[in-house]
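Input record (one chain):
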Amino acid sequence: MQIYLKRATGFFGMASPLTVSINGEKQTMISNNQEKQLIVPKRAILQVSFFWLKSNQIELTEANAGQRFVVTMNPFILQAYICFFLLTSLFGFVLNQVVGLLICLVAYACLLPYVMKKVYVIKEDTYG
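The corresponding structure, as predicted from the sequence alone:
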């Protein structure tokens, strides 16, 4: 069966193509604002990645034939990076607090394994 996959990740990582995997095997690469037609088995797992950064896994069945999917950046990740940048700037430069800066860095290191598996989001493209 065939499906369509579009990448709409915006500014973040736009220069680097994402690897598209079907059932854990690399199939193709997709660049920013590119749409590809993919031929997939009747039952498959779809995921995109960039080195160790990954998306959610989408389970595809025959019901998904001809369907359009879009890859976007996870909005939580974008907000988390903005908050992290602001907090480290506040503690490190404005308040000159080494302890606060270290707490931010430890929190970032703890969240990193969780974040790496959810950087990209694959969802149905309801707008076509």
